[in-house]
Amino acid sequence: MSAPLKGSCFCTAVTYVVSGAPALSAFCHCTQCQRQFASPFVHAIHVASSAFSWTHSEPHDAQLDTFVIPTKPWKTRYRCKNCGVCVAGRNSQTGNCSIWGATLERTKDGKIKAWDVVKPTAHIFYGTRMVEVNDDLGKWEGFEGKSNRVA
Ligand SMILES: [Zn+2]
Ligand SMILES: [Zn+2]
């Protein structure tokens, strides 16, 4: 059993903890992630909803804005009301929560503390990439192992 993963928004008003290892950890190049985070790709982590808990002061909702993705109403995003950072998502179809590696707790040198547990295993939705990535990870058109491998 690994130590729980802790993370927060940029201003730290919103905090969370995740128990256990991720169900998925990958660099995601899908257009939804690109547009939502204004970034060529993001480090996406999926965990079971039961493994995810908010840890900031109650009531948790007082610190959170929710955003339902209009084209995918089963996906809700939770953002800090103060700094606006998106800290988690919930998918009511899969029963998973999403978090993003960049929000995880850091060492004083700026490294993600739990990197050994959360390091990405692949690049997913690489067909819509905005940038080529030359690393050793597999590149997939969709999800890892469930789509065509691109590289
Ligand atoms: Zn914040
Ligand atoms: Zn994505």
Task: Describe the overall structure.
The protein has helices at residues 31-37, 115-118; strands at residues 5-8, 15-18, 24-28, 42-48, 52-54, 64-68, 75-80, 86-91, 96-100, 122-124, 138-139. The strands form 2 sheets. The chain has an 8-stranded mixed sheet with strand order 6-7-8-9-4-3-10-11, with helices on one face. The chain has a 3-stranded antiparallel sheet with strand order 1-2-5, with no helix packed on it. The chain is mainly beta and 151 residues long. It is built from 2 helices and 11 strands, in the order βββαββββββαββ. The protein is globular. The protein has a single domain (5-139), classed as Beta Complex (Metal Binding Protein, Guanine Nucleotide Exchange Factor, Chain A), CATH 2.170.150. The N and C termini lie far apart (33 Å).
